Amino acid sequence: MNMQHSDKMKLSLDRDAIWSQLRDEARAAVAGEPLLGALIHAGLMHHQSLEAALAYRFSLKLASGEMSEQILREIADQAYADMPALGDAARADLMAVYDRDPATNRLIQPVLFYKGFQALQAYRMGHWLWRQGRRDMAYYVQMRCSECFGVDIHPAARIGTGVMIDHAHSIVIGETATVGNDVSMLHSVTLGGTGKEDGDRHPKIGDGVLIGAGAKVLGNIRVGDNSRIAAGSVVLHEVPRCKTVAGVPARVIGDAGCPEPSHSMNHLLGAESYP
């Protein structure tokens, strides 16, 4: 089931609609590639809800000789039951990938194959554990997420919904960082500190921000809503809302160019943007 952009926009965050489409896509995928039948059945068709499917995926991916799938599955099931907003966040993240990534034409792709989406849902489990005071288990989730997906997000970091982490390799997000809603970032992004100071020391990313591949945002600085950070930039100072910054160190080179950079995913910097 291949979707054009206009068709994608018709699908809302409705729980039943998303789960129904996932099931339809799963059946079509099995018919098209029977060798993946066991994987798709176990990952999607065997379950009664997206939350159950995500709990299974979480436990399967992060289990190790030190921690069984059963224990991790129980943790995830408890988290989704205790905090229904986790399921809502997962749907918003899923739709963010579906809408913004031109390589994604089915919902099953992020759920089964994309480490950015799966790592973000694993972070959400770790953050739930952190808020429950289960700090060591949260650190275990962080460690395994880094080992399995190459994504290192501290469980105390705060991340909004509708977030897309595209490709996701070498993402690092520090302990006191915050990321707003509807943010898009590409691989090798770092939201880090500037030294060995403690306390509030990591970036605060606003809503609707687009962060290009390899960008480094360092220190307790604010990146304003609907701004763009060009690929490879090193951001050390506050970024005003609706602006584009680029360079090492980064400086403002113009407006963001559109109302919602994280949705347009336009990384090009026109010559007219430079002074």
Number of strands: 15
- The H-level CATH homologous superfamily of the largest domain, spelled out, is serine acetyltransferase, domain 1
CATH T-level topology of the largest domain: serine acetyltransferase, domain 1
**Broad CATH class of the largest domain:** Mainly Alpha
How many domains? The number is 2
Q: What's the tally of helices?
A: 10
What do you see in this structure?
Pathway: Amino-acid biosynthesis; L-cysteine biosynthesis; L-cysteine from L-serine: step 1/2. It catalyses: L-serine + acetyl-CoA = O-acetyl-L-serine + CoA. Belongs to the transferase hexapeptide repeat family. This protein is an alpha/beta fold. It contains ten helices and 15 strands. A hairpin with a 2-residue loop joins strand 14 and strand 15. Helix 2 runs antiparallel to helix 3. The longest helix is centred in the N-terminal third of the chain and has 18 residues. 44% of the residues are buried.
Short overview:
Residues 18-122 form the Serine acetyltransferase N-terminal domain. This protein has 275 residues and is an alpha/beta fold. The protein is built from ten helices and 15 strands.
Quick tags:
alpha/beta; UDP N-Acetylglucosamine Acyltransferase, domain 1; 2 domains; 10 helices; 15 strands; 42% helix; disordered N terminus; disordered C terminus
Topology:
Layout (H helix, E strand, L loop, with lengths): L4 H4 L6 H18 L4 H9 L4 H13 L6 H14 L2 H16 L7 H6 L1 H17 L3 H15 L1 E3 L4 E2 L4 E2 L5 E3 L4 E2 L4 E2 L4 E3 L11 E2 L4 E2 L4 E3 L3 E2 L4 E2 L4 E2 L7 E5 L2 E6 L5 H4 L11
Parallel strand pairs: 1-4, 2-5, 3-6, 4-7, 5-8, 6-9, 7-10, 8-11, 9-12, 10-13, 12-14
Antiparallel strand pairs: 14-15
Helix pairs in contact: 2-3, 3-4, 4-5, 6-8, 8-9
